Amino acid sequence: MGPRVDKIKNESVISIAAVMEKSGVNFGTSGVRGQVVDLSDEVCWVYAAGFIQYLQETEQLHPGASIGIAGDYRSSTDRMMGVLSQAIVDQGYQPINLGKIPSPALALYGLKQGIATMMVTGSHIPEDRNGIKFNTATGEILKPDEQGIRAQLIIIPIGKFTPEGALVREPSLPPIDGSAKAEYVRRYLNFFPKSALQGLSIGLYEHSSVSRESLYEILTGLGAKVMCLGRSDAFISVDTEAIRPEDVVLAEQWSKEHGFDCIISTDGDGDRPLLSDEKGVWLRGDVAGVLCAQYLAADAVITPVNGNSALELSGLFNYTQRTQIGSPYVIAGMLAAEREYNNVIGYEANGGVLVGSEIIKDGRRLAPLPTRDAAIVPLAILMLAKEKGLTISALLKTLPERYTVSNRLKDFPTERSAQILSPLLTLPLEGSLNSAEQLLGALAGVPVALNTTDGVRLTFESGDIIHFRPSGNAPELRCYTESATETRAVALNAACMQLMETWRLV
Questions:
Q1: Number of structural domains, the chain?
Q2: Which domain covers residue 160, as residue numbers?
Q3: Which residue, 27, 119, 319, 474, could crosslink 300 as a Cys pair with Cβ 3.0–4.6 Å?
Q4: pLDDT of 6 strictly over 90
Q5: Which residues pair with 450 in a beta bridge?
Q6: Do 26 and 56 have their domain in common?
Q7: What is the percent of the chain with per-residue pLDDT over 70, rounded to a whole number?
């Protein structure tokens, strides 16, 4: 992990900032992620200790309190959960092993019990990476919390770790407590009407999702006929914003073979949904979010700037707000909106929906869950389709026809992205639009609006949208395009990617 900052008697002291620099394991959304080879026992222990110290510093922990831990199905997860358990004990607290459950199930348990929790997961990224999500007793950590954790100095007893960063004594986990999973399943069985999905035939694409058992219990508990598909003991990286070609083919094949009303899945840790229509065509997450918010009768909807503009064009909601990309920004927007609106919902382009306020529908109550959740999305959409007497494909057609496509240019330095995009940030606005027309006019025509909330998002006279955004945690330049037809959105994105490749040479 690198040299210590200082040594005191039989202890060493290291800052979280030093751990980040030496290990390459950095903060992302709501926690830390990195290569498994860099996530040594020592690195995981130090991060867990830093989180706990921050909670102590901010008076969010009482002596002897319990802290919940859970994880996904990656091969590295069990080891890391053991390390977190040891870190909790070493700091004077009680670990609760909640097993392999969805991230939102863990967050829900923490909210219900009023305790902090930690989730070992790399979400949708490949198995050679992993991470730790941190939740306080009120929900996932926000940017101020992240800064507080970064500022911690951690004391490590000499001899606790080998020179390679492994715990000298192998840690152990307490027995699994199944109450968090049970609470998560009850959340939906109690909110939706009894037998709400009766008569529906649903394919459950299990792969290596930690949500597969919970979803099966929820769907069958609501009366659906469920066929389990594609279960894998090896971890599969399923990204709901960049669906694998093989998953596109599988969904269409399964739908033809079995005549499903839909196919349901999630990413690895169950906070991003995948939902297909009756033809096996996967829905875009940002469109699914609109439909979910519609069923929940949202007054206010908060979503990042890269989402589909059908949200605003639908006219379904009293208030909408666009934020920077990342759930902490969505949550901050939701907290502000709750001062003026009753039913506040957030969602991201990956489809994960955040429930900011209590939802009451037909006398049933859905408690707030201000973290990304996958389960609520297909359930809400299926119920909306049922209420309207429509298939999912027909339900989609009730929204304004807007199509979004995303891609990314890898190995593109952040500094180079800033150099290319800086002319588009020129003041006054007229200068930026002129620069944009010079850069992109051949592809999209005349730009008429500019949004710099996160990157550079341009709207053109044609209604086309092009959004460039440097990645916050990788040397990548992302490109989002939107248009009135799928063909045009795809073609525009491809043209932008070709243009972006030329920027490497300028």
A1: 3
A2: 6-179
A3: 319
A4: no
A5: 458
A6: yes
A7: 97
